[in-house]
Write a sequence for this structure.
């Protein structure tokens, strides 16, 4: 078997050279990290669930006209994506106060915000992904004013759509992180949604009980990470009801 060339390995995913021109294979690992890698563990089945959930959400977003890097899922852990130039920013959308916002501003976790708030963080592990403003972004050339406009417009559309989609599944979209890339097609460039959308980079709470169904279960040593991710997949219609209660690990609908 021909050994695949690794392009990049991050905390939760590995990128391999793609099988088609202009593509990359994205592999979802079972590794879990928190505190910018200070806390690490392996959670069996997490990568399988994130692959399937991200595929579903990317496909749903493409259906409303949001451009993404996603092409198709290849197997339980891998998906084919378009090769893009990643913009070194994390775009965070906050609908409810939680996590670092609660600590930074002294707002009680769970407080509904007056309106959705968009924040930017510079992607740099060595600097612990610091918060930055639009002035920083354009001054240092990480993104142009037009890039930022495109990213914000897409982010607002994504938040509106996903908030409704999750609400229909009995889940509150508290906050989430997005990444974007530049997709070059001949001489034409457009901004597209990249990375993943999964419980690893979304805060998802049960709409009635506020039970956490996301990575905070790992960050805060709450346990039940795979069970929570599986519950998200089940509510989205990705996992069949029949497997609930069976202790056989995640089983996904093809």
């Amino acid at each position: 078997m021909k050994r695949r060339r690794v392009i990049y390995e991050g905390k939760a995913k590995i990128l391999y050279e793609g099988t088609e021109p202009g593509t990359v294979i994205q592999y979802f690992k079972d590794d879990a990290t928190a505190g910018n890698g200070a806390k690490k563990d392996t959670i069996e089945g997490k990568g399988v669930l994130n692959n399937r959930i991200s595929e579903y959400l990317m496909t749903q977003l493409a259906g409303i006209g949001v451009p993404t890097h996603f092409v198709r899922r290849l197997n339980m852990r891998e998906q084919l994506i378009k090769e893009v130039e990643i913009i070194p920013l994390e775009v965070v959308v906050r609908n409810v106060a939680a996590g670092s916002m609660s600590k930074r501003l002294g707002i009680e976790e769970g407080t509904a915000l007056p309106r959705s708030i968009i924040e930017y963080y510079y992607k740099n592990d060595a600097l612990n992904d610091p918060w930055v403003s639009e002035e920083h972004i354009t001054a240092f050339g990480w993104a142009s004013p037009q890039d930022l406009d495109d990213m914000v417009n897409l982010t607002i559309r994504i938040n509106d759509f996903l908030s409704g989609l999750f609400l229909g599944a009995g889940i509150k979209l508290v906050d989430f992180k997005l990444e974007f890339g530049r997709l070059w097609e001949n001489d034409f460039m457009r901004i597209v949604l990249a990375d993943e959308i999964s419980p690893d980079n979304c805060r998802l709470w049960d709409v009635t009980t506020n039970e956490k169904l996301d990575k905070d279960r790992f960050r805060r040593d709450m346990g039940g990470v795979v069970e929570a991710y599986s519950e998200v997949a089940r509510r989205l219609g990705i996992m069949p009801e029949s497997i609930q209660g069976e202790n056989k690990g995640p089983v996904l609908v093809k």
In short: The mean pLDDT is 93. The chain has two domains: 6-84+224-243, 85-206. The helical segments are 46-63, 99-105, 134-139, 145-168, 216-219, 225-235. The domain at 85-206 is CATH 3.30.470.20 (D-amino Acid Aminotransferase; Chain A, domain 1).
